[in-house]
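Annual report, structural modelling task.

Input specification for the manganese (II) ion complex:
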Amino acid sequence: MIVVLKHGVPQEKKEQLIAWLQNLGLRIHVSDGEFQTVLGLIGDTSQVDMDLVASLEIVSAVKRVSEPFKCCNRKFHPEDMVVDVAGVKIGGGNFVMIAGPCSVENEDQILTVAKAVKAAGAQMLRGGAFKPRTSPYDFPGLKAPGLELLKLARKETGLPFVTEIMNIQDLPLFEDVDMLQVGARNMQNFDLLRELGKINKPILLKRGLANTLKELLMSAEYIMASGNEQVVLCERGIRTFSDYTRNTLDISAVPMLHELTHLPVLVDPSHSTGIARLVPSMSLAGAACGADGLIIEVHNDPIHALCDGAQSLRPEEYAELARKVRAVREAIA
Ligand code: PEP
Ligand code: MN
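The model returned the following structure:
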């Protein structure tokens, strides 16, 4: 249920209403916008007399929210959420370019790529140290030393970074990480999501390979209901019967998610296609359809990459693409 308050309601009256609702055993999510305050009621609202609340002098409207996701529901929070990653803002008109290799491989590789993407205009670095791999014989990432190399790259370039956490036991290693990624394969690892809801760090939540938008939002809800509201969603392609691409970029997911939730939505054209030459066009599509940013794989030597070389752009290709993305952003502004 949401309770929309009239404009300019005195703070004291607002607090009295919140305390009264809390006494009914509800959690109240307060969204103070420029023009209105929205109270989101979470819990068993069957005890709330809607007519009584609606009749209060300070209330302008009361509505039931039928969707099972509450904290991430735009009805609870009409204004776009802006997530701040070490000073880089994502959402609410702030577009972020995140780039870097699939996996951190060695110092030279990560520093070379980090410097190149920074020069091309990226505001954040990506790189996996803990890698979920389909085959147990493939490179699983450098693990803790990989995180150290990401920190070194941050120190050298000033770029904050996002990196994947696969297992909650590893969380102590992620203390000095700017943003934690929950990968597609872990989107419904509910224990992991709940624990990430208890920390105070932005989370990049990628859509699962075969998950619906509602399931993605319910996963965001796990994190937010546990207390961490700093969630950014990512459309990274889903499994379909398309036979020539790794996945299918569900581009309509972006405007649909923007309707349903106030959380920022990124597009990952690299995992969506699996093919480097398709990445530029899908990136432009992502920018044109209103995504809040792009996360793109870039490698200084894609042919010898230990992971996802086929979908990785070379630094000069990324620089060219970044220029076109800026042009699309200006065109649609
Ligand atoms: C990645 O970002 O490198 C990755 C493994 O992504 P996804 O979880 O979307 O497959
Ligand atoms: Mn990858």
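Residues 315-332 form the longest helix (18 residues).
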